[in-house]
Specification:
The structure is a homodimer. With about 210 residues, chain A is α+β, with helices and mostly antiparallel strands. The first copy, chain A, is built from nine helices and four strands; from the N terminus they run E-H-E-H-H-H-H-H-H-H-E-E-H. In chain A, strands 2-1-3-4 form a four-stranded mixed β-sheet, sandwiched between helices. The model of chain A has no long low-confidence stretch (mean pLDDT about 95). At the A-B interface, helix 3 and strand 4 of A face helix 3 and strand 4 of B.
Chain lengths: ~210, ~210
């Protein structure tokens, strides 16, 4: 079972976009990555992973580091609010709790792996979470998201529960660590340059163009 | 004794640039802030402060958080290396130790407070640290920097040692905390919007223009 999601290093002319469903800056990047990539003639490879597992690997805790730093966290929400405004995105709804558990959504993303279907699902989840304030760890919420976006919800839930799906998500997370990822979103080029953060998206695309 | 450095909130048409001498992203921002501000017709107010004191306030330790996170730290140096390249800055020299103690340099900056002299000193210190790899906590290094840049080194060292100078630097650091600063560099507009990081400089200048 090969698929674009499992190949480790993206080929020349493409950029791996590593995202975590709980991550607000991943949401911001997801909202603009396709338009910018199209303009740059770079193909995006979507890579879901579990940031909590990486935090645990690096810091011994799965919680967001923002939760240990209240002043930085307050700044983050204001920063994102301003970015939503300047990018004409709907007003941000701060998830409660933060971070939300993105495990089930990430497994669904792995199960849905397909160039056309995957981004549609990703956008729907992020918008439910950061625009409508829905709890994306709740299976009924994800069921509704799937149905409203034209997916066969029962089939996708079954696929998300397969051992192979779970194993692929773990593999992706291990790969993220091995490739130097410590936060989300991250972008990796075919020559394995790592770029971290929504604010490095343009730079990552330029780099991918240079080596394409 | 009033001076531009002590006024808390910058007036309309200006932007406060809060920097720490040990901070590599403050160095990157210092290298481009004047050209970008001139283009935006915004006046820069230079604000030295002690990031260690803020880390202690927030995290209970004065050390750089990068030193507790090796993968993130490795990424940071690569990120800065790439930014130096793309901005045609000389190759980065990673300070050893990192972070360097910027206390004496910050006191000198407070003592030198003057629209014309201050930026000249700041650039000289940052370049010695991040381009030539010199130890800016060493008084003889700072003496040499002052002399090579046309300052009266003995006089400035005496001024840096005054109680009033030390008190002003402490006040600046307290102000930074009170205004919501938790990292460096930070930019604050006349309506007290905080922007954090070299990569928010353009956004901060645009904000300052809008309210000017």
């Amino acid at each position: 079972m090969t698929s674009p999601i499992i190949s480790s290093i993206p080929p020349a002319g493409s950029l791996a976009f590593w995202f975590e469903f709980a991550s607000p800056y991943s949401y911001l990047a997801a909202e603009r990555v396709q338009a910018l990539a199209r303009k740059a003639k770079i193909i995006i490879q979507w890579r879901p992973f579990l940031l909590g597992a990486i935090f645990k690997h690096d810091n011994g805790t799965t919680d967001s580091p923002f939760n240990a730093h209240h002043r930085k966290k307050a700044y983050m929400w204001r920063d994102i609010e301003r970015l939503c405004q300047s990018r004409a995105l709907p007003a941000l709804t701060v998830p409660d709790p933060f971070p939300m558990n993105g495990l089930l959504a990430a497994r669904l993303a792995v199960a849905l792996d397909d160039d056309e279907r995957l981004p549609r699902f990703i956008h729907a989840v992020y918008r439910a979470e950061f625009q409508q304030g829905m709890d994306i760890s709740d299976p009924t919420v994800l069921m509704a998201i799937l149905e409203q976006n034209g997916f066969d919800a029962d089939r996708e839930f079954a696929a998300a529960g397969h051992d192979a799906t779970k194993a692929r998500l773990r593999l992706l997370t291990d790969e993220a660590i091995a490739q130097g990822i410590f936060g989300a979103p991250a972008f990796i080029t075919s020559d394995q340059e790592v770029f971290w953060g929504d604010d490095r998206l343009e730079q990552a695309l330029e780099w991918a163009q240079t080596i394409a």
